Amino acid sequence: GVGLDYNSFYMNRQRFELMRNKVSGYEASTKAIKMVSHLVLGLGMIVTLTYGSLASSGAWGLREVGIALSTSVFITTLSTTFLLTPAILALMGSRAWWPGSRRWRKK
Length: 107
What we know:
Helices cover 80% and strands 0% of the residues. It is an all-alpha fold.
């Protein structure tokens, strides 16, 4: 769930750059990363530290869950938001938004 939230920030910004400012997929991807990276990284670190605090628990089950969740959220934040989603959307360009592309062109 956390990765979906972070990707939505990024994808909304890239769509804005593609549709309103009429730039290429690569330019929209780089502008979106510049605008959203601080927000996404900060939110990811907050969730990672929150789950990591479970590692200081006295119960061994909570420690294991805390370590597993904090590690997975950190990896998901970095990999999907900064690597996979920008690369895929940059390659696809405006074709990534094909269901609503006609609506944007009419305006």
